[in-house]
RecA-superfamily ATPase, KaiC/GvpD/RAD55 family (Halobacterium jilantaiense), 239 residues
Amino acid sequence: MCLRFGQMDSAGYSVRRGFHMPYDVTGVLPDALCREFDHGTNLLLSGPAMSGKRTTLLDLVARGERDAEGSVLVTSRDPAEEIVDEYEQSLAGPSSFLHVVDCVSTQSGSATAAQGVHHVSSPGDLTGIGIEFSGVAEAAAEAGVDRLRVGFDSLSPLLMYVDIQRLFRFLHVFTSQIQSQDWLGVFSVDPESHDAQTVNTISQLFDGILEVRVPDDGGQEARLRGVTDTPTEWVPLEE
């Protein structure tokens, strides 16, 4: 569920599911798109190369730092050091809980030990990704962090290593873990790198899709579908 500006429940309060607080995205997404996502939401962030979707993904994850939420980043494109540098640009202060699952550095031979960084052999090592993510979940529990935002950048490289059936099974387990823990998951994909059937198959696993694009006159626009009553219009993203 996504709460937009002015939307209230029958009692006049912001919509909630059970007793769990939603995940605030104000300041990242315009109110016309969404102000908060319900706990356990898995969101597919879809956009072509150079559309700014990774910045949007990192901003959505970093937004939780204001509310003392933990952060997990899975990177299949760039090494942990680079993704952490970009993530920290989104923060006003140090991270309270940040772990990174790096699927790149071991394969390139650049992996180095760093606090909170977990290495797997390649983007095709789905078993390794799952094991490391479960380890992060245990570390969060031990640290008393019960709210996590998970950013996965990106699903597209995984499809260079595994077929869609394997990826679907992996994502089903991965997103189910996020849902069962009442976390928020944001997964990016480049729809122009895959055929429509592949993208549609992946999309089935997600509660909603946030599409981003760069219009002809520049800037960045987004629209949201699946977690709202009706799809939104294209809306300029705040800079």
The two ends are 25 Å apart (CA to CA). Residues 126-142 form the longest helix (17 residues). The chain has six helices and twelve strands. The first strand starts at residue 2 and ends at 3.
